[in-house]
Amino acid sequence: MDFNHIFKKTAKSNRAFQSDKRKPVVPEGLMKKCNLCGKGIFVEECENNDYICPKCGGYLRMPADKRLETLVDEGTFTEWDLGLKNENPLNLKNYPAKIQELKQRTGLDEAVVTGKALIGGYETVLMIMDCRFLTASMGEVVGEKITRGIEKATALGLPVIIFTCSGGARMQEGMTSLMQMAKTSAALKRHSEAGLLYISVLTNPTTGGVTASFAMLGDIILAEPEALIGFAGPRVIEQTIGQKLPKGFQRSEFLLEHGFIDQIVRREYMRDTLIKLLHLHQKEYADVSKHKVPLYAPVSMKSRNEKTAWERVQLSRQSERPVGGDYIEGIFDGFMEFHGDRFYGDDPAVCGGIGWFMGRPVTVIAQMKGKSTKENVKRNFGMPLPEGYRKALRLMRQAEKFHRPVICFVDTPGAFCGMEAEEHGQGEAIAKNLFEMSDLKTSILSIFIGEGGSGGALALAVADEVWMLENAVYSILSPEGFASILWKDAKLAKNAAKVMKLTSYDLYRAGFVEDIIMEPENYTADSMDKVCEELKDKICLFLQKTDSKSIDQLINERYDRFRKM
Question: Residue 273, class by beta-carbon neighbours within 10 Å (0-12 exposed, 13-18 middle, 19+ buried)?
């Protein structure tokens, strides 16, 4: 007998036994593998961390009930429209059984939970999709629950918040599923026409028919970090075009850069962000008419009018001069910036959003220069692309819907005149702003804080009133450009500045601006407090005046203002 063979086999068995003894036995449900980094994580730790992987920081899919716990005031959620019957329009053999099995396994009624709740004390209609139920695909019941929720919100005069997470249309229901895209969108149109707020929150993944309907129709669109968002899935695109997609394609950050979402919000900040947005959109706000404003001396043509036009041009361009962001910080509280034109991109040369002015929400739009070379490069030296003007117009229309005044800060050498701008329709974008602002159904104030270059400045200055900082300028073209065109010599810019009548005093005298705000000598961000205080007082007076007018009167007077020029 071959004893050596037996000894070897026994030793191997003993080693295996010893190995099994050393391997820890993990109780079922205690740990799971992160589907992003592949590492083992404790389930309880993950749940306590808002379903964010403690190893890689990746966002895992959050069940609807857990998301509700993180968002709503405790005990305030009332669920709606339970028990709607799923049909089987394609008569698929296993589809009804699959639906029943999912209901039992997930405890969900369908792929979306809808109802009413308080978030920070604000009554809200809330809907949350859950990918555990057929990848939260949109069948008839999902579409019906969302549509009913929107209709009830419209009837009750309440905002709607929808957390999307979906593979798109439900293949098992064919054309019935496709029609839910139109149905939900039509309901949102009626909700919007009623002047009500809709916030869409995109989570991973939001694709297909959900992306091409209610997910992308929010007044404000938020997204979680790194969420996959797109119409066609990455695999479908790669198979169709035969190319490998770049890293980060169709992720939240990609959409922010390309102008399709307002903000990316981390999960731990989502509730606070929603509360802030709901607060900004309440119909009750402070009455600025009760604010007493000190009297300011009328503009005098003798007030430090000794500087030459060229000297004022130089002052308007000084790198130490306050920029748009300084005025936003110095005049408004709780400013929230929104991004994107919803067409192509987000232009850093234009900053826009909502802030509080003396307890009242206002829309603020500012052309932005930087304070350093790096910042100026990022903001294209304050020269907007078409995306910047389209973003501004989008925010103005939003202000019109919610009856918020619009306050613009103008500071640009002019609209960017590169090839990219022409390809994206620079002329059309500026023209559309002039067209739409002429009868925007809310008050508009434009304040020139630095340079005001040609149509690039006018695109934010079709307003009820236009004001200028003392050493700001506003002209048909830069003095250098003017001299080059008329006299074929840019070196004659100093002479051109005098001829062009571009100073605040020239324009006030000609009736193109309504007020001049005095500046201190050596005007910087450190010396602008007094200017901000005066601007606050005068903006308050402006709002008191425009609030007393009907919309028709406001629009007619705005038309007449430009008609007589």
Answer: middle
Question: CA of 118: how far to CAs of 78, 79, 272, 274, in Å?
Answer: 10, 12, 13, 11
Tokens coding 388: 């910047």
CA distance 311 to 497: 9
pLDDT digits (tens, 9 = 90+) for 90-105: 999 999 999 999 999 9
Give the C-alpha separation, 215 to 250, whole Å.
Answer: 15
Nearest CA-CA partner of 31 in 21, 45, 17 = 45
DSSP string covering 353-375, please? Answer: EEEEETTEEEEEEEE---SSHHH
User: Phi and psi dihedrals of 355, rounded to 5?
Assistant: -145, 175
Which residues on adjacent β-strands are paired with residue 164? 202
Helix or strand run (H / E) with residue 469: strand 465-469
DSSP 299: P
3-state class of 53 per DSSP? Answer: coil
pLDDT in tens, 486-531: 999 999 999 999 999 999 999 999 999 999 999 999 999 999 999 9
Integer Cα distance of 357 and 559 in angstroms: 26
**pTM for this predicted structure:** 0.91
Quickly list H helices, 338-425: 373-378, 386-401, 419-423
- DSSP letters spanning 145-190: HHHHHHHHHHHHT--EEEEEEE-SB-GGGHHHHHHHHHHHHHHHHH
